[in-house]
Write the structure tokens for this entry.
Amino acid sequence: MQLNTHEWGSGDRTALLVHGIMSDHRTWRRVGPALAEYGYRVIAVDLRGHGASPRGGGATPLERYGPGQYAQDLVDTLPIGAELAIGHSLGGLALLGAVERLKLARVVYSDPAWKFAQPSTFDPAVFTRFKRATREQITAISPRWEEADVEVELATLALWDSDSAIALSGYREAAGLPGAPAVPSLVQLADRSALIGPEDAERLRAAGYEVRTVGGAGHTIHRDDLAGFLASLDGWI
């Protein structure tokens, strides 16, 4: 599958951006230009079932939106050998499966959704109900977002195929912390992350990941606190 992409900048270094569930490339509306200022050509995708990318094909939601498919789509769409890739939430899971084939120089996993599908902690209905979220509900959940981000969220929800959320309940075999990183990797965490707890963070450090927390930021760190998001990438961008 060839994914829809959006680009910022024309630098001689390449950065890839992979969004989380329910979103699309527009979630990076401030990150893309910021990285372009650092001298990158920035390429952001719309994952399958999101934004302007095709919907998945198959008889069941899991067949249409499996973790391996997300990773393969990245390999089929994006250039090989990028200097940097950032994956948020579900994008972090997709990116994890594509790192070696994309031959990335370094990777940032922003509050990655590696463990969310464990049976005791995950209910896909949470996501499918959010498909009908109102402006007021989005603002209440994410009070630090700019108004433009609320507008983007409403627009992306309208395009999102909620079957991709139903498919998540079938990810249990893939749920869990990864092993040693294939390339230099940073795990960037929200304050009191609901996805990667303190013990998980220590295990990741022991495995060879650098782990940094952005104080005060929620799950979508780059929308809650762009300055904090970028500051936590010091040495990585």
Q: What stands out?
A: The CA atoms of residues 134 and 154 lie 8 Å apart. The longest helix spans residues 147-159.
